[in-house]
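User: Hi! I have a protein structure encoded as tokens and I'd like to know what sequence might fold into it. I'm fairly new to this, so please keep things simple.
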């Protein structure tokens, strides 16, 4: 390992979070879980409006470190993983995962917990759960059916097929495939776009999309009304509306 297990840097209003165990393809151990918890706490601060998550070296995340956790009880360790995943997924800011290489096992869950998943053309997705005698965990059974469908998820998990980035895009697992050297540029471009938008409206939009999975149409319509009322008087919303009116008048 070179340096701390997770690196963070803030540029403007975008926080970059980098998994930093390249010698282990950024496999997650206890120290990384602690550092990730700190990173998500940092992400909740007001000066952060968007987050980019990526991996150091040739891999994004190889999932849990099965060597480091060989003698560790399963349930407590998984609860620590899950707490980190929830902290990430429940951020009121957009999170973009930039999958720069292999994502395996719960590394796929981590990538899919982001609001937008970008993949390098060198990325590979390997659901190495059943092949190692494990059940899918850390949200895999939640995120994968929503991204690619229940039947395709079952087949993919049972075969353990190595999925290329273009195949992942075709299936709907990732939003875009980007030439490897442009991956971080594209991730920062998207993150900056989100960071420049009115933050309260972005947060409420993220919340509405998450709630839609468990809502009836009538419930979702009511949520939209409540959210619209919630943002209507926000200073950034009033400023955005004023700018839009000026742009229309200038045409």
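Assistant: Happy to help. Inverse folding works backwards from shape to sequence: for each of the 251 positions I chose a residue that suits the local structure. Here it is:
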């Amino acid at each position: 390992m070179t340096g701390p297990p997770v690196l963070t840097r803030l540029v403007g209003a975008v926080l970059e979070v980098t998994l930093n165990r390249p010698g282990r393809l950024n496999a997650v151990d206890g120290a990384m879980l602690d550092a990730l918890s700190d990173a998500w706490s940092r992400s909740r601060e007001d000066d952060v409006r968007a987050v980019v998550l990526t991996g150091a070296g040739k891999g994004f995340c190889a999932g849990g470190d099965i060597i480091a956790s060989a003698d560790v009880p399963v349930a407590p360790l998984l609860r620590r993983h899950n707490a980190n995943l929830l902290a990430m997924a429940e951020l009121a800011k957009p999170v973009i995962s930039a999958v720069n290489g292999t994502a395996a096992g719960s590394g796929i869950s981590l990538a899919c917990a982001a609001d937008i998943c970008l993949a390098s053309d060198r990325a590979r997705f390997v659901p190495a759960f059943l092949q190692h005698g494990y059940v899918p965990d850390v949200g895999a059974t939640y995120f994968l059916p929503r991204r690619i469908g229940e039947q395709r998820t079952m087949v993919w998990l049972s075969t353990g097929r190595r999925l290329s980035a273009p195949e992942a895009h075709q299936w709907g697992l990732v939003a875009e495939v980007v030439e490897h050297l442009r991956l971080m540029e594209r991730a920062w471009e998207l993150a900056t776009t989100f960071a420049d938008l009115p933050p309260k409206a972005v947060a409420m939009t993220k919340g509405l999309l998450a709630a839609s999975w468990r809502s009836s149409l009538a419930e979702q319509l009511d949520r939209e009304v409540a959210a619209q009322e919630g943002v209507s008087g926000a200073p950034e919303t009033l400023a955005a509306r004023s700018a839009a009116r000026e742009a229309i008048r200038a045409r």
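A useful reference point when you look it over: Strands lie at 6-11, 14-19, 50-55, 59-61, 95-99, 102-104, 116-120, 124-126, 163-164, 176-178. Feel free to ask if any position seems puzzling.
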